Structure of Ribonuclease HII:
Amino acid sequence: MNPSSRLLPCYQDEGVEAGCDEAGRGCLAGPVFAAAVILPAGFYHPLLNDSKQLRPSQREELRQYIEKHALSFAVAAVSPEEIDRINILQASFRAMHLAVDQLRIRPQRLLIDGNRFIPYADIPHVCIVKGDSRYAPIAAASILAKTYRDAWMMHLHAQYPEYGWDRNKGYPTTAHRRAIQQLGLTPHHRRTFSPCMPQLFMAADDSQPQES
């Protein structure tokens, strides 16, 4: 069975729905990105799924397809400085709000991946745990948020190659944590995250996540 054949096209049959998801919440460096996507009726791609279940080449193929066929989409980011100021959860919600702000079509319902959200204006929302593997609009948002963030981290990697962001995308891998211990922090690190605090440096282990 193709992954997308298991995805539901909408939460309710009536009203315009936008799927929302974020990428980079668990990273030590870089912004958190979020996307909002409104798909047309009958949207289909055989690979569409939660972005974490796909290879980079598949995500890139889907990004181009989604951008071509979506009724409206937008991607937004919140900087490491703001993440440190308001915390990562609030920053994730803010990134989603900023993405919805940019949609050319005003949705009548937001489908949020996860179990919490700060209401956006007067648009009702539904929180759906693992929604990126259940609903096509959220899966599409997960693809855009992930691919845009990965591209940003590749850009930063050219400036700071010692941290291996081309491979770990800012996640707390062994190599990334070791680089922080040896080289210190860049302006793109989240200073309130414990591995970025010198007094809390811990021995890294190979069980740390590579990316999500």
